[in-house]
Design goal:
By secondary structure, the chain is mainly α. It folds into 2 domains: 157 residues, no CATH class; 175 residues, Four Helix Bundle (Hemerythrin (Met), subunit A) (Up-down Bundle). 75% of the residues lie in helices and 0% in strands. The chain is built from 14 helices and no strands. The protein is elongated and about 90 Å long. Keywords: Cell membrane, Membrane, Transmembrane, Transmembrane helix.
């Protein structure tokens, strides 16, 4: 769970449309799918012991319609094999203990076939449940298990496609805008910190927000690619490259924040750059923030000029920066940020 505490995780889910909020929405959808599957199986179809219906519904709330439909086929296939395996073992093996061990062993082996995907484990689990519940020799109950699985999986897949379905192109654009804004805000905050006008208070929370949005952005890219399959609304024209480039900023940004925070907390003067050097770094961070927000090529050119000035400070023997470890620690990740923004 992201964040330092459960409260922070929940607060971030409501404040930032990132990984936490996506998890919260998917959890709510899976819960609703399980409850609906149970109600239909018990109140409408009046199936006895319909435990597989809510199970299947939960696992079919996936990130894309394609993934849900693929999962439906895999899960129904895996459960069908598990039912047949349990039926065969129940007919020829009189000992429940022996049948249970054999069904689990063979079922898990069969389930390891990659065609079953993540649903492969259901071959062994289904067989185990049927043997342990004593249903393996009752054809009517075996048929009920297949019906329950198909019902639950179908409800999960449909609910996932209808309730808050992934809006692939829109999600990609929104993720790009949110991540660019969050990165720019962190850079502005860091610029103030470098100049000595701010403390590190709140910077960790901002970085957690960026980390959450990076995770959401990576998912959005994957969903966009996968969501083109079976997407009746078309492929869309949204480009993935700008968002992928922003995601690539995460590691140098984290390194930069670590260097700045360490220098700000240090009581040793040689760890922190002098006032002029800090001003140059602050200007660079503000220019990087503007590039992240708007992609302004003029600001990117200014970033390169400021990097050149930092290089000059690092090799020029002045009283201010001769022993400044902090400036060198900040310069390297800042250079990587400029390079990756330039690659956009």
């Amino acid at each position: 769970m992201g964040g330092k505490t459960p409260f922070a995780w929940v607060a971030r889910a409501f404040r930032v449309p990132g990984e936490e909020r996506r998890s919260l929405v998917q959890t709510a959808k899976a819960t609703a799918a399980a409850v609906i599957a149970w109600i239909v199986a018990t109140a409408v179809l009046r199936l006895p012991q319909p435990f597989l219906a809510p199970y299947a519904a939960v696992f079919l709330v996936q990130a894309t319609v394609y993934r849900s439909l693929r999962g439906w086929a895999q899960q129904v296939g895996a459960v069908s094999v598990g039912v047949l395996l349990a039926a065969g073992a129940g007919q020829v093996i009189p000992s429940v203990t022996v049948a249970l061990g054999l069904v689990i062993f063979v079922g898990l082996l069969i389930g390891s076939w990659r065609g079953f995907g993540d649903s492969g484990v259901w071959v062994g689990i289904t067989g185990m449940l049927l043997i342990s519940y004593g249903n393996a020799t009752e054809p009517v109950l075996l048929a009920d298990r297949l019906l329950e699985t198909a019902l639950g999986a179908g409800i999960g897949a449909v609910l996932n496609a209808v309730i808050l379905p992934p809006l692939h192109g829109e999600r990609l654009r929104a993720a790009t805008s949110r991540l660019a804004s969050a990165i720019a805000d962190v850079l502005d905050k860091t610029a103030e910190l470098v100049r000595g006008g701010e403390t590190t208070d709140g910077l960790d929370d901002r970085m957690e927000d960026v980390r959450s949005l990076v995770a959401e952005a990576e998912d959005a890219i994957g969903w966009t690619r996968e969501g083109r399959y079976l997407n009746l609304r078309g492929r869309g024209e949204t480009r993935e490259e700008p968002l992928a480039n922003l995601v690539s900023l995460w590691h140098p940004l984290a390194q930069l924040i670590d260097a700045v925070s360490e220098a700000a907390r240090s009581e040793q003067p040689f760890r922190h750059p002098g006032e002029h050097a800090r001003g140059v770094v602050g200007d660079l961070l503000e220019a990087l923030a503007e590039v992240a927000r708007s992609g302004d090529p003029a600001e990117l050119d200014r970033c390169r000029d400021l990097l050149g000035e930092i290089d000059h400070l690092l090799v020029t023997p002045t009283d201010e920066v001769t022993t400044s470890i902090g400036l060198g620690a900040m310069a390297l990740p800042a250079r990587r940020l400029v390079q990756r923004l330039h690659a956009d």
